[in-house]
Amino acid sequence: MAGPDPTPRQADDLPFVPPLRRAPAPISIPRTRWPDAREARDARLFSPVRIGPITARRRTWVPAMVPWRASEHGEVTGALLDWYGRFAAGRPGVLVVEATGIRDVPSGPLLRIDDDAAIEGLGRLVREVRERSAGETRLFIQLIDFLPIHRRPTRERFLARYLELTAAHRAAVGLGDGAPGDAVRSALAALPEEELRRALTRREWEDMEWGKRVRVTDVHLDEVRSLPAILPERFAAAAERAQRAGFDGIELHFAHAYTMASFLSRTNTRGDGYGSTLEGRVRLPLEVLDTVRSRVGDGLAVGCRFLGDEAIEGGSDLSDAVWFAERFARAGMDFLSVSRGGKFDDAAQPKVGEAAYPYTGPSGLACMPTVRIERGPFGLNLGLSRAIRARVRAAGFETPVIGCGGISTFELAEAALARGERDIVASARQSLADPDWFRKLELGRGDEIRRCKFTNYCEALDQRHLEVTCQLWDRDFERPDCRPAACIQRTADGKRRRTAPAWPGPEER
Ligand SMILES: Cc1cc2nc3c(=O)[nH]c(=O)nc-3n(C[C@H](O)[C@H](O)[C@H](O)COP(=O)(O)O)c2cc1C
Ligand code: SF4
């Protein structure tokens, strides 16, 4: 038996998207029925689907997941090849490589595609995936741009060094223009909390309490004002490198907390034609698409991941998303991958010395929903992808719509396709828990699936920028990583295995 139908109720022509509420106790993982090989053979889930110029053999999709396995300079490593090779062994229709930086900015072990030097390593990654999937998996790469974010400083340090003094600060502590800056800073530091809060602007308070974060609305900064001039070319150069490395598709990262999603957001109040109205907000994303397309031509699938709902107060919701979806389809996106939330706006306050993380607040929970929310995470975004797909179809486009969010059973995946709630089913954490799960389903061996618990152990590792692994297999030191293989690769601290144990598939039985 599957769990209760989690699809939100229809209201007017758009479904009502209820806010997420915490459950008093964790929801249990729904019991389910697995298909036998014959039922799986006839399933929509395992039928081919056209994505622009290419065809995926199945409607199964592993979305981007950062594993923190690139080198310090953002290059492909052996551990990264093992990570993607392991997903490829499960032969999903499409595998999307993690958010990959398009700019030359140090970002720790986050993959980068900011220079031609990256092509060689990425080419190895492409070959690894081809080989491990026996050529059955289409490989896409997610291209990301993000703006600088700083660690939270101590109050003392912020007030002594970072705060730019204004007449308002001087007035708040009763010191005039003639008073030395140090005296004003010391007086501010001596204020009680509430008075200090009143003495600072909201933005200054946030910079002090959360760490300074550059926003797309900071048009007083040259590097922010000029984003529309520089980003299309940066995305296009990165896309061309991906094409030369042999990827089948590009996923433009227009979702979550990052630059492009911030342009699409209702919170984007830029007055330079790249914000404020729906037309203004979608302008840069469309310019990026155009520039990418003219650089890579029609041979590569080019689509985007964007938000069906920002899940923040004052943010974009489904009505914005359906409008964007139609514009994207009209502009020639080859696919639309729908996600939800994941914003800085409501992120939890980081500890001093740490940076804010966009998956810690309510919108973060919407992005990676757990069993601790009411009704659980199962099929959480079906209403979003259904409405988006309906709008795209009504406008006369066949653009495939992809959606994720707690899909971990055949019943839910197949029903989502049958009900027209999406064209392709994406599963991130279930695929991490068991990279062979789609394959086991297809072979009628669903009872061997290791089922995700949706408690976000993996996401907590991601948050701390530690190598991502799954609690269900990372202490299993008995079975090898791949077959045939002699050893098990471990994380840098030696405590956890890096990839899921090999599954003795049908070839070896
Ligand atoms: C460890 C981890 C890393 C992730 N990294 C990315 C990423 O690089 N880009 C992205 O768009 N989403 C990322 N996500 C979000 C997933 O792609 C997906 O949207 C989310 O987990 C919800 O889908 P699920 O319920 O199938 O897991 C990540 C999720 C996890 C758990
Ligand atoms: S760590 Fe937990 S939430 Fe993450 S994939 Fe494994 S079981 Fe699922």
Question: What brief labels describe this structure?
Answer:
single chain, 509 residues, alpha/beta, TIM Barrel, eight-stranded parallel β-barrel, two-stranded antiparallel sheet, 19 helices, disordered N terminus, binds flavin mononucleotide, binds iron/sulfur cluster
The helix fraction, in percent, is: 25-40%
Radius of gyration: 24 Å
Largest sheet: 8 strands, parallel, barrel
Average predicted confidence as pLDDT: 94
Structural class: alpha/beta
CATH hierarchy: architecture of the largest domain: Alpha-Beta Barrel
Overall domain count: 2
CATH topology of the largest domain: TIM Barrel
Instruction: Give a count of the beta strands, DSSP E runs of length 2 or more.
Output: 12
Low-confidence stretches: 1-11
How are the elements arranged and paired?
Elements: E1 10-11, E2 14-15, H1 37-41, E3 49-51, E4 54-56, E5 60-62, H2 78-89, E6 94-101, H3 118-132, E7 138-144, H4 155-162, H5 167-172, H6 181-189, H7 193-199, H8 202-210, H9 222-225, H10 227-245, E8 249-254, H11 259-264, H12 278-296, E9 301-309, H13 318-331, E10 336-340, H14 362-367, H15 382-394, E11 401-403, H16 410-418, E12 424-426, H17 429-433, H18 437-442, H19 457-463
Parallel strand pairs: 5-6, 5-12, 6-7, 7-8, 8-9, 9-10, 10-11, 11-12
Antiparallel strand pairs: 1-2, 3-4
Helix pairs in contact: 2-3, 3-10, 4-6, 10-12, 12-13, 13-15
This protein binds flavin mononucleotide (FMN) and iron/sulfur cluster.
